[in-house]
Design goal:
Elements: H1 3-15, H2 18-24, H3 29-43, E1 48-49, E2 56-57, H4 59-86, E3 92-97, H5 99-104, H6 106-117, E4 121-126, H7 129-137, E5 143-148, E6 161-175, E7 195-200, H8 205-214, E8 223-229, H9 232-240, E9 246-249, H10 254-258, E10 263-264, E11 272-281, H11 287-303
Parallel strand pairs: 3-4, 3-5, 7-8
Antiparallel strand pairs: 1-2, 5-11, 6-9, 6-10, 6-11
Length: about 300
């Protein structure tokens, strides 16, 4: 049995809707339903009456909910006490960020932060978008950095989870150049010679970004899936070895573009602009976090 199953169950009892509860828990409806079923199998009884609309709790579900709320309350209270003891002393930050952001953006950002506030002890946890959101929601980080596109929003309560835009990046197609400096793979390719595509897994955020972009371009590209990974750094290495074309965030390949090791594989119409956002839980009233947030807000207004 997992704690997230209990949290799912409590959310369902509050929203009385599988779809709304799944959205609140930031999980697909099918995945949410499977977790509720797993909890019912662990308990050994039906907790949800699915014959009614909206779905209601069975007598067993009502009994379990009372115990679940009490148990979770005690667990989270105990966790809060432990975290106070374990929190980094002084000006410390626990940061969750995507791998590309952690490698390409955060080093310079943290350096600028130290120049402004003095020594700041930061612990950066590189992870995927889903796990970053869970860290923020569960209180396991003070800041979360993530990419954002208006058509691919992160499902976070905007009242509780504030955000600021701290940068803009571009997802662009690149490949190795030939001896004359031209791309060895040029979009859109042809049916006779489709381009080898080094791409992201469909469920990754960049994978969804790429699907959005390819669904909007005028000319359907001729692409042949070649390699797949959910990490941009893996794609970058394969592209540098001449294995194919990949859409990479420009921030991660500035040096390679400047050195001519990589070149654009298509015109600007094949690019997708994404925001780089930082999120915080507004209920976290850390004095240093509040000071930092005011500074970041002022900086973002200057940029705007």
């Amino acid at each position: 049995m997992e704690i997230k199953w209990i949290e799912d169950f409590i959310a369902l009892s509050q929203y009385q809707s599988f779809s709304r509860a799944a959205e609140f828990r930031n999980v697909t409806q099918s995945g949410f339903s499977r977790r509720i079923q797993s909890l019912e199998q662990w308990v050994g009884a039906d907790l949800i009456d699915r014959s009614s609309f909206p779905p209601t709790l069975t007598p067993a579900g009502q009994l379990f909910r009372e115990a679940a709320v009490d148990i979770l309350g005690k667990l989270f209270d105990t966790r809060a006490i432990i975290r106070i003891d374990q929190r980094m002393a002084g000006k410390g930050l626990q940061i969750a960020a995507g791998h590309t952001i952690a490698l390409s953006f955060l080093p310079a950002w943290l350096k600028a932060l130290t120049a402004r506030f003095g020594e700041v002890r930061a612990r950066v946890i590189p992870t995927n978008v889903h796990d970053s959101i869970l860290m923020l929601v569960n209180g396991n980080c003070e800041l979360m950095f993530a990419y954002h596109h208006p058509e691919l929003p992160l499902h976070l309560d905007p009242i509780r989870y504030e955000h600021l835009t701290v940068g803009v990046d571009v997802l662009m197609p690149v490949c190795r150049p030939n001896p004359r400096g031209a791309p060895i793979f040029r979009l859109p390719g042809t049916a006779a010679r489709p381009l080898p595509l080094i791409t992201y897994t469909e469920t990754s955020y960049f994978g969804r970004c790429l699907a959005l972009l390819l669904g909007r371009v005028d000319a359907t590209p001729a692409l042949r899936p070649h390699y797949e990974s959910d990490m941009a750094e893996v794609l970058k290495k394969l592209v540098l070895e001449g294995e194919g074309v990949a859409w990479l965030p420009k921030s991660s390949i500035v040096a390679e573009l400047d050195a001519g090791e990589l070149v654009p594989a298509g015109r600007d119409a094949w690019h997708l602009e994404v925001e780089l956002r930082v999120y915080r839980d507004a209920s976290n009233r850390s004095e240093f976090l509040d000071t930092l947030w005011r500074h970041l807000r002022a900086e973002s207004q200057v940029v705007d």
